[in-house]
Amino acid sequence: MSLKIVLLGYMGSGKSTVGELLSSQISFSFFDLDHEIEQLEKKSVTKIFDENGVIYFRKIENKVLDKIINSENDLVLSLGGGTPCYYDTMNYLNSKENIKTIYLDVPIPVLVQRLFAERSTRPLIEKIDTQEELTEFIGKHLFERREFYRQAKMIISVADQSPTEIAARIETLL
Ligand code: S3P
């Protein structure tokens, strides 16, 4: 049976960077869900949000997730920040024995620091002007989302470790 390692967490938590490193360490293929959606739709996530709307995005996201999860290969997959919060995704993923869901739990100040400079490329926070507003937004958003994230089979609390250290730590826990 194939093994699928699924990384989840808030925007800016390092899912893609850690996922890519982990996949090369253990010689699994790597998939980034946002990237797969962009390939299928032939446009950026921001453009999909702008032109097709969030409901359309969530539907496509779920469809692409399903396809990857039901493939035959061993793989590492990084979800989008919102993926676990729609379509009963956590129960679906956790019900499969060959899927390991891993939550990268990153403190809010670290997320704010990472996301503030790149907010213009992220549709959910592109209109935020100040770091204070971003802190407040993430605080509220995480309060809603943690309930889903915390259903992951494994939780990795990230403080100041590098992506390489986090990937190495995950490998020891697999
Ligand atoms: C989203 C996170 C993004 C992307 C989209 C929506 C979210 O993915 O899927 O902008 O709802 O948190 P990343 O977490 O990879 O940035």
Automatic annotation (TrEMBL):
<feature type="binding site">
    <location>
        <position position="145"/>
    </location>
    <ligand>
        <name>substrate</name>
    </ligand>
</feature>
<feature type="binding site">
    <location>
        <position position="58"/>
    </location>
    <ligand>
        <name>substrate</name>
    </ligand>
</feature>
<protein>
    <recommendedName>
        <fullName>Shikimate kinase</fullName>
        <ecNumber>2.7.1.71</ecNumber>
    </recommendedName>
</protein>
<keyword id="KW-0963">Cytoplasm</keyword>
<comment type="function">
    <text>Catalyzes the specific phosphorylation of the 3-hydroxyl group of shikimic acid using ATP as a cosubstrate.</text>
</comment>
<keyword id="KW-0028">Amino-acid biosynthesis</keyword>
<keyword id="KW-0808">Transferase</keyword>
<feature type="binding site">
    <location>
        <position position="122"/>
    </location>
    <ligand>
        <name>ATP</name>
    </ligand>
</feature>
<keyword id="KW-0479">Metal-binding</keyword>
<comment type="subunit">
    <text>Monomer.</text>
</comment>
<feature type="binding site">
    <location>
        <position position="161"/>
    </location>
    <ligand>
        <name>ATP</name>
    </ligand>
</feature>
<dbReference type="InterPro" id="IPR000623">
    <property type="entry name" value="Shikimate_kinase/TSH1"/>
</dbReference>
<dbReference type="GO" id="GO:0016301">
    <property type="term" value="F:kinase activity"/>
</dbReference>
<keyword id="KW-0067">ATP-binding</keyword>
<comment type="similarity">
    <text>Belongs to the shikimate kinase family.</text>
</comment>
<keyword id="KW-0418">Kinase</keyword>
<feature type="binding site">
    <location>
        <position position="34"/>
    </location>
    <ligand>
        <name>substrate</name>
    </ligand>
</feature>
<feature type="binding site">
    <location>
        <begin position="12"/>
        <end position="17"/>
    </location>
    <ligand>
        <name>ATP</name>
    </ligand>
</feature>
<dbReference type="Pfam" id="PF01202">
    <property type="entry name" value="SKI"/>
</dbReference>
<keyword id="KW-0460">Magnesium</keyword>
<keyword id="KW-0547">Nucleotide-binding</keyword>
<dbReference type="InterPro" id="IPR027417">
    <property type="entry name" value="P-loop_NTPase"/>
</dbReference>
<keyword id="KW-0057">Aromatic amino acid biosynthesis</keyword>
<dbReference type="InterPro" id="IPR031322">
    <property type="entry name" value="Shikimate/glucono_kinase"/>
</dbReference>
<comment type="pathway">
    <text>Metabolic intermediate biosynthesis; chorismate biosynthesis; chorismate from D-erythrose 4-phosphate and phosphoenolpyruvate: step 5/7.</text>
</comment>
<feature type="binding site">
    <location>
        <position position="81"/>
    </location>
    <ligand>
        <name>substrate</name>
    </ligand>
</feature>
<feature type="binding site">
    <location>
        <position position="16"/>
    </location>
    <ligand>
        <name>Mg(2+)</name>
    </ligand>
</feature>
